[in-house]
Design goal:
Blueprint (H helix, E strand, L loop, with lengths): L1 H30 L8 H12 L6 H4 L4 E4 L5 E5 L1 H41 L7 H16 L2 H12 L3 H25 L3 H9 L4 H7 L2 H22 L11 H10 L3 H30 L5
Antiparallel strand pairs: 1-2
Helix pairs in contact: 4-5, 4-7, 4-10, 4-12, 5-7, 6-7, 7-10, 8-9, 10-12, 11-12
């Protein structure tokens, strides 16, 4: 009986989801937006061909001299594409480091600021309802606003530069950290909290004195997870003037420099993969069972 009821609930949700998708598609078709443009396949092949030739290859395989001439044949300017690409790679390296700095500082600021809110929001902390509900609503509000929206706000408040990106990352991640902190506390063994209460400690005191060693590895994992996400998220903040790789991305796309765009994307993937491997190694080390 329970299984059939569960199946009916599941089928109801699947049916509602399919109806929602059908409604969205029908409205797209009615508005004329269900289209991939003119000659999408030809455009895709052309773009893919240009993306398959990252610009950094010009350092070794590109021409070392390009002349720009007027209509009457006079040489107006001479450039060395190899040298120009080396300068671009140097700028790319600086932008990549800035992106990592923005993600790192923003994540740390959010992790520290969200800790008391996560403690207050956890239901098994049994704090007064007004405090707990205020903490949950605050975390929901910050988590619901996208990083780019915060970025636009802080660029308008403090101006262009990476500090606006740091604050944007911190503001959005504040809600994420707080929610994950609260959930990790709520999954703690209830018997440990009950034993602390029996000894005259509050749930918060029990957490601080008795569950700290249990919570710390989880919170480190939470921090690494959100930090890793922010490394990816911060790559686009430069699009709104908050520093990092986004500015180079915007320039490459606006000028249709697909070779340079490919180089930037390779740098982003390399950064994310490297940090993903590092964070996974740290998580395994932190969560490895300790010998007694």
């Amino acid at each position: 009986m329970f299984k059939s009821g569960t199946d009916r609930t599941l089928h109801t949700w699947i049916g509602a989801y399919l109806l929602l998708v059908a409604l969205i598609i029908s409205q797209f078709i009615a508005a004329g937006d269900f289209s991939f443009g003119r000659k999408p396949w030809e455009n895709f092949k052309k773009t893919a061909a240009e993306l398959s030739q990252p610009s950094f290859l010009n350092i070794w395989f590109g021409s070392d001299r390009v002349e720009y001439r007027s209509d009457d044949g006079r040489v107006l300017r001479v450039e060395n594409p190899r040298e120009r690409e080396r300068e671009f790679l140097a700028a790319l390296g600086r932008a990549t480091w800035t992106t990592f700095q923005v993600a790192t500082l923003g994540s740390l600021l959010a992790a520290v600021a969200a800790l008391p809110f996560g403690l207050a929001a956890a239901r098994n902390m049994m704090l007064p309802p007004v405090i707990a509900q205020t903490a949950r609503v605050t975390l929901d509000v910050f988590r619901s606003i996208h990083t780019l929206v915060f970025g636009l706000l802080f660029v308008g408040v403090i101006g262009l530069g990476p500090m606006a990106g740091v604050l944007a990352i911190a503001a959005h991640s504040f809600g994420t950290y707080g929610k994950l902190y609260a959930e990790s506390i709520e999954t703690a063994d209830a018997r440990l909290i009950q034993s602390g209460v029996a000894l005259g400690l509050s749930p918060l005191q029990t957490l601080v004195y008795g569950l700290w060693r249990t919570m710390l590895p989880r919170w480190i994992s939470v921090h690494l997870y959100v930090w890793e996400f922010n490394v990816r998220d911060s790559t686009v903040l430069g699009l709104i003037g908050a520093g990092g790789l986004g500015l180079l991305l915007s320039e490459a796309v606006s000028l249709f420099q697909w070779g340079r765009l490919a180089t930037i994307l390779i740098a982003i993937v390399a950064l994310v993969v490297a940090f993903d491997n590092l964070s996974r190694h740290i998580r395994h080390a932190v969560n490895r069972p300790r010998e007694h």
